[in-house]
Design brief:
With 219 residues, the protein is α/β, with parallel strands linked by helices. It has two domains: 113 residues, Response regulator (Rossmann fold); 88 residues, Winged helix-like DNA-binding domain superfamily/Winged helix DNA-binding domain (Arc Repressor Mutant, subunit A), CATH 1.10.10. It is 37% helix and 21% strand. Helix 3 packs parallel to helix 7 and helix 5 crosses helix 7. The radius of gyration is 18 Å and the shape is globular.
Length: 219
Amino acid sequence: MPQRVLLIEDDHDLGRQIVERLRRAGYDALWWTQGRELESTRVPEVDLVVLDLMLPGVPGFELLEQLRSRSEVPVLVLSARNDTGDKIRALKLGADDYMTKPFWPEELLERVKARLRRPALQRDDGIRVGGLLIDPSARQVRLDGQLVALTPVELDILLVLARRRGMAVTRKQLADQVLGAADDRALDAHVSRVRKKLAPRKVIETVWGIGYRIAEDDG
């Protein structure tokens, strides 16, 4: 079954071009031309959302916040708003990636592929760090036995760090592996969200001048 991508874009010419390219690439593309209120029973069953920010109806930032409060589906923001503040706000609200218009169609497809890509399933009992248990096969994280809801990018950040426990991973290495590009601001926003979700445990340490590492003692 092809992976399903929801495009939320009010520019009809651009929307048709994106939908056509997605379908030619083998994806099942669904298209909304305006923002909609999301109720708990109406969260779209898709594998990825490509979201414009300047939308009629429900604005993009509000829609992103509603979506993230109900689902961990990856979200790629595609917007003409190229201000750094807008980008950081979107990432802090839970977007997994941010791409500005105008753009190359080939780059959009590569970013879609990157966001939909999943690490190969591992046959193991999980990675335990103190009270934190990461299950790569089920793609789940538990803290003191309680399930923690993480986005795919947030989980991948933890996996990369946990598999190199005790070692510092440079910001460039982490961004390249998880985001597909060395975007320090985007990486820092994602790490900040992971820390908040795992608080009060201090799971991720900052290694000044280098990057991040998993704390040996997460208490």
